[in-house]
Amino acid sequence: xxxxxxxxxxxxxxxxxxxxxxxxxxxxxxxxxxxxxxxxxxxxxxxxxxxxxxxxxxxxxxxxxxxxxxxxxxxxxxxxxxxxxxxxxxxxxxxxxxxxxxxxxxxxxxxxxxxxxxxxxxxxxxxxxxxxxxxxxxxxxxxxxxxxxxxxxxxxxxxxxxxxxxxxxxxxxxxxxxxxxxxxxxxxxxxxxxxxxxxxxxxxxxxxxxxxxxxxxxxxxxxxxxxxxxxxxxxxxxxxxxxxxxxxxxxxxxxxxxxxxxxxxxxxxxxxxxxxxxxxxxxxxxxxxxxxxxxxxxxxxxxxxxxxxxxxxxxxxxxxxxxxxxxxxxxxxxxxxxxxxxxxxxxxxxxxxxxxxxxxxxxxxxxxxxxxxx
Length: 374
Ligand SMILES: Nc1ncnc2c1ncn2[C@@H]1O[C@H](COP(=O)(O)OP(=O)(O)O)[C@@H](O)[C@H]1O
Ligand SMILES: [Mg+2]
Prior knowledge:
- The chain is α+β, with helices and mostly antiparallel strands.
- It has 3 domains: 10-94, 3-Layer(aba) Sandwich (Rossmann fold), CATH 3.40.50; 123-183, 2-Layer Sandwich (Dna Ligase, domain 1), CATH 3.30.1490.20; 189-369, D-amino Acid Aminotransferase, Chain A, domain 1, CATH 3.30.470.
- 29% of the residues lie in helices and 26% in strands.
- It starts with 9 loop residues before the first strand and ends in a 5-residue tail after the last helix.
- The chain binds adenosine-5'-diphosphate and magnesium ion (MG).
């Protein structure tokens, strides 16, 4: 049953990272209060929350406390304990439900769901043990990528295999969980679609983003993606089908590969706002965070519109100083920093968004500023 949540009421967020922070900032604009469950005291979301519950994500007492203080509960990451979330759905209002997390936190159930939704995926096999992988890898061939079913991010928990000789490199992955092996997709581009849906079935996609990864970490998102119109239509259609299949409430980010011929292959999904959607804060008439809050609060959704071509660049720990030095030079950069104190190498500390009709000039600024050097 879909409920409307009103300003003045409290939104509980599981997870205190930057996605929670940007959700909270969006919600606060409309006058909501924020409670956050997060094991660390000084978290990006905790810094802007009204109520902080400092405990592990699966701590029973903490989840009960969150349920007590919140009128609605959402989450900012998918690796939360499914059983804990399931129990929470019985004692609190969690419009996104627990199924969405169960399906998307495991690559095996996720791929099955994508196929069920009628969307293309790379050929893949499931292996519970290294022995099983050895037996069935020939069905996929080489090159291929072996990925842990659970817990991977930013390329962690995966191994590219160029030939059978390298198979033993994957042994470690099985210490973590079951794995899948999937054919290497010779993609021309990577794109993502963020699809958002409320409990009444209203569904909208944000404009398709083109994602450029460096060392497996998202470096920049260019919007609109430099793809043909028919590819963009295919991408949106696929995201809508998946949202429908999941009976989505909230946000789903769908990562895809674009092949040379303009066709698409679905890579993976995340049931939350996504790094590749940050451009929407300035670039669109509705940000992914505001739309997410509207969706979980039972508000009508707004049809997204892109104000201007945008480019979003992540700022990692090693680039914070370069960013700070760039602030006086580039008034057109929208600067976002997440309030993390320790600027560790490769840690996502913030991002910038540039709205521009002159993409090459913006890319030149990014290069000159050294906010991305290896
Ligand atoms: N089957 C594949 N073929 C080619 N490249 C892949 C494939 N799977 C993953 N990659 C590359 O690795 C990156 C990270 O993989 P992904 O499955 O998205 O895991 P993560 O959870 O780390 O984001 C992708 O963005 C893509 O660049
Ligand atoms: Mg990914």
